[in-house]
């Protein structure tokens, strides 16, 4: 990906389990070369915990973060859009937020994490979960939704403490510019926080380089640079 160079290091990475919402959750953890750093939660697309999401998790680790991608589907990965839609619908928003809060607990309890709050980065369904999680979890101080899809009602942002940097495609038919305006206005009215929602000349899933029909290299590179700078500024 010439527009967004991949890191050349090899951060420590491992599969982890942790208690979450009265069950045992699983996730993919990547440590930075230094062995420690601020914590970031990475939230999957509707496909599941795919190679693309573990790759993003590794890339964040190379940038100096302790990155954890919780598996919201319990090891299942969708193979087509119909299956992905079914799996997403079978995960109630409240249940997903409970599992993600458990991931925040686990990350902040790890000795490698140097921050007392975490960032959250998510894609599509996961971008929506970034907003739902930040709305109820004061330990999230930096929220980065990539083309985040809101499922059902918009969150109540009155308890929001996180700054928001969002990345959206101007040609995304699932998230209109009007919807982004409504989101920005609601966040401001309920929390007083000005959400930085950026748009790019691209469609949905423009950051996903495993989907050549959607991937937009220049937009992905710009969004990645902004995300890393934002997380460093808020968490270090």
From TrEMBL:
GO terms for molecular function: hydrolase activity. It comes from the Bacteria. This is Dienelactone hydrolase family protein. SUPFAM superfamilies: alpha/beta-Hydrolases (SSF53474). Residues 27-233 form the Dienelactone hydrolase domain. Transmembrane segments: none annotated. The keyword Hydrolase applies. InterPro entries: AB_hydrolase_fold (IPR029058), Dienelactn_hydro (IPR002925), Dienelactone_hydrolase-like (IPR051049). Keywords: Hydrolase. The keyword Cell cycle does not apply.
């Amino acid at each position: 990906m010439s527009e967004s160079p991949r890191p050349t290091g090899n951060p420590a990475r491992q599969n982890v389990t942790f208690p979450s919402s009265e069950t045992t959750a699983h996730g993919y953890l990547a440590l930075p070369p230094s062995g420690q750093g601020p914590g970031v939660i990475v939230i999957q697309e509707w496909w599941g915990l795919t190679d693309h999401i573990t790759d993003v998790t590794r890339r964040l680790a190379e940038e100096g973060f302790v990155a954890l991608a919780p598996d919201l589907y319990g090891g299942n990965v969708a193979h087509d859009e119909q299956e992905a839609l079914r799996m997403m619908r079978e995960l109630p928003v409240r249940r997903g937020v409970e599992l993600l809060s458990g991931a925040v607990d686990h990350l902040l309890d790890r000795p490698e994490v140097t921050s007392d709050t975490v960032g959250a980065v998510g894609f599509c369904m996961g971008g929506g979960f970034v907003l739902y999680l930040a709305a109820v979890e004061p330990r999230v101080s930096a929220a980065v939704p990539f083309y985040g899809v809101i499922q059902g009602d918009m969150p109540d942002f009155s308890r929001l403490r996180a700054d928001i940097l969002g990345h959206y495609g101007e040609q995304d038919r699932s998230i209109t510019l009007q919807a982004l305006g409504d989101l920005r206005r609601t966040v401001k009215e309920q929390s007083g926080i000005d959400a930085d929602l950026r748009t790019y000349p691209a469609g949905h899933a423009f950051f996903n380089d495993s989907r050549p029909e959607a991937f937009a290299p220049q937009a992905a590179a710009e969004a990645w640079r902004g995300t890393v700078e934002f997380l460093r500024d808020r968490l270090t």
